[in-house]
Design a protein that fits this description.
By secondary structure, the chain is α+β, with helices and mostly antiparallel strands. The chain contains three helices and three strands, in the order H-E-E-H-H-E. It has one domain. A hairpin with a 3-residue loop joins strand 1 and strand 2. InterPro entries: KH_dom-like_a/b, KH_sf_prok-type, KhpA.
Length: 77
């Protein structure tokens, strides 16, 4: 899943080397915390959050039935 997120996000940003994903897992959920360079934050979020929503849609669809846990994607500063 992390590779999928990196594949989607790295072409969008000006600083692809600073794209990082931290994984937090609990009994019921998996949370991927995406951090990017501060200058790239707007590119990843997009106007009115459209890009972020599209990334989340793809990630949620890809993880859909494979896991019994709920998957979340957070964009952190």
């Amino acid at each position: 899943m992390e590779e999928l997120i990196l594949t989607i996000v790295k072409p969008l940003v000006d600083h692809p080397d600073e794209v990082k994903i931290n994984l937090e897992e609990s009994d019921r959920s998996i949370t991927y915390k995406l951090s990017v360079h501060p200058e790239d934050m707007g590119k990843v979020i997009g106007k009115q959050g459209r890009v972020a929503k599209a990334i989340r849609t793809v990630v949620y669809a890809a993880s859909g039935s494979k896991q019994q846990k709920k998957v979340f994607l957070e964009i952190v500063e």
